[in-house]
Amino acid sequence: MPALPKWLGESANTVTFDRQYLLLAVAMYTIGLIMVASSSMPVAERLFDNPFHFVVRHGVYICLSIFIGALALMVPMSEWQKYSGYMLLAAIVLLVVVLVAGRTVNGSQRWIVLGPITIQAAEPAKLFFFAYLAAYLVRRREEVMENIKGFAKPLIVFGLLAFLLLMQPDLGTVIVMFVTTFGLLFLAGAKLWQFIAIAAVGVMAITALAVFEEYRWRRITSFLDPWADPFGSGYQLTQSLMAYGRGELTGQGLGNSIQKLEYLPEAHTDFVMAVLAEEFGFIGVAIVLFLSLWLVFKALYLGRKAISKEKYFEGFFAFSIGIWMSFQTAVNIGASAGIVPTKGLTMPLISYGGSSMIIMTLAFVVLIRIDHEIRLQSIQATSKGGRK
């Protein structure tokens, strides 16, 4: 496996990676660890007689993510492109395995259990599919731009993954992949009428899935008016809204949330931002949103920079990561604030969850690697120019 250059020996004029990504990762890891600790202690005390159960596991997930990320950082982007088809195949296999032998929690069969390790199959499926889609757009970009056939081919693959995800069921992941796929196809140059037509079909399909599944329809109706049934279908959202309301501008202070005392279900996973809002207020939520926006902006800017250097796979991959993270962040915070229906999506690098943490870290690492290769290419070009 090719190794990275010796960054420790680089001079100030030849910086070969963007340190802002590391600062962002450390900031979000730290915020996540603090909030998981604060929000999970009451439920951990009841379930495991150990208030630090979830925070210790979350710390282990962070360490494991960093270790896996360090290994992935040594993999050139050409290898990601070369093996993108195999990664897609691995994603499909994982989604099939979870349907055959997965663990069911709260009515959803989403987890593969391997001894002490639990894998949520949908998380790697997202990253692997986006790698495949970026590679496909490099191979078939002209076909995507010129006719409906090239535009439709990746949608068939997405349809297969969506079918397997809906069998779990996991509509939230399907929607994230749907939005990211169409965003990337649009950036790749797909014709506007094709984009609008198939997007309209997709929206109608998602609407039908919601209308004809009773539990999804309950989520939508309870989201529209959670106070109509505050102790039934609207319970989780009303408790979350109370947390946001109590937070006001500066919050109640770290550890002083009332809703985390088992009033708010899933306080340390999907609704960790509600506890953060209660304890740190509008200012705390604004800081997290700023960090997320900073990351998304950097990913999209990096994608544009890569394409300008004719590194198309790297550019499309960076675009997909930026769209994915922005939309998942928006849905997570929007669900806890009552702006969109609850979708069961984690807050990137902040919510509790090992699979999500590892995959989001890998997405970070991909951005660092892309930036590193572009910088290294520029340094080498400058060196060659200087020797002439």
Would you write up a description of this structure?
By secondary structure, the protein is mainly α. Helix content is 71%, strand content 4%. It is built from 13 helices and three strands, in the order H-H-H-H-E-E-E-H-H-H-H-H-H-H-H-H. Strands 1-2-3 form a three-stranded antiparallel β-sheet. Helix 2 runs parallel beside helix 13, helix 5 packs antiparallel against helix 6 and helix 11 runs antiparallel to helix 12. The longest helix has 37 residues. The two termini are 32 Å apart. The N terminus is likely disordered.
Largest sheet: 3 strands, antiparallel
Q: How would the global form be characterised?
A: globular
Task: Determine the structural class based on helices, strands and strand pairing.
Answer: mainly alpha
Order of helices and strands: HHHHEEEHHHHHHHHH
End-to-end separation: 32 Å
Residue ranges: pLDDT <50 for 5 or more in a row? 1-13
Largest sheet, spatial ordering of strands: 1-2-3
Alpha-carbon Rg, integer: 22 Å
Query: Which percent range fits the helix content?
Result: over 70%
How many runs of DSSP E, i.e. beta strands?
3
The percentage of residues in β strands lies in: under 5%
Number of H/I helices: 13
Mean pLDDT: 85
List descriptors.
388 residues; mainly alpha; three-stranded antiparallel β-sheet; 13 helices; 4% strand; globular
Quick overview:
The protein has helices at 19-48, 53-72, 77-82, 84-101, 122-146, 148-166, 171-187, 192-212, 214-224, 235-247, 272-308, 312-336, 354-387, and strands spanning 103-105, 108-114, 117-120. It has 388 residues and is mainly alpha-helical.
